[in-house]
Amino acid sequence: MELLTFLFINFVVAFISDIILNDLSSNYGIIKSLKPYFYKQSIVISGLAASLTIEFALLITIVIYYLIRKTTIPRNNKELLYFLSLAFIIGYITDIVIYKKKIFGNRLDKYYEEYGSGLWGALSLIFSIILSYIIQKKILPKLK
Questions:
Q1: Average pLDDT over residues 25-52
Q2: Residue 5 CB-density burial (10 A; 0-12 exposed, 13-18 middle, 19+ buried)
Q3: pTM, two decimal places
Q4: Which of 142, 54, 144, 53 is nearest to 134 (CA)?
């Protein structure tokens, strides 16, 4: 159950994060190079694409983490550091594959030309994991 909760929270975090990025690039001119990606695309579709991308990288991270540590998700801060180290590598590689294989077509070309591939994909996965970990371990228990 803990694993499913973690996956669900990451899905929601990625979805909301993408909506925020969409708003920042489309309405405020921040990260302008993302504008072609969001142009004429439903906010729900782009949010789902972001969520599925995070879930894909997260599942790879979980499988490898399980093979190494015999547990699926971090249970404490020390395990979280191990998990994040692995997730950074997986997120970096995933973002490069997305760029090289043009998973989202040419709409991200301008973004990748400006920011490069790898680092920001890795950091988005790290962000999602940290926020989801805080929600699951610190916030949800207080709501019970």
A1: 95
A2: middle
A3: 0.95
A4: 142
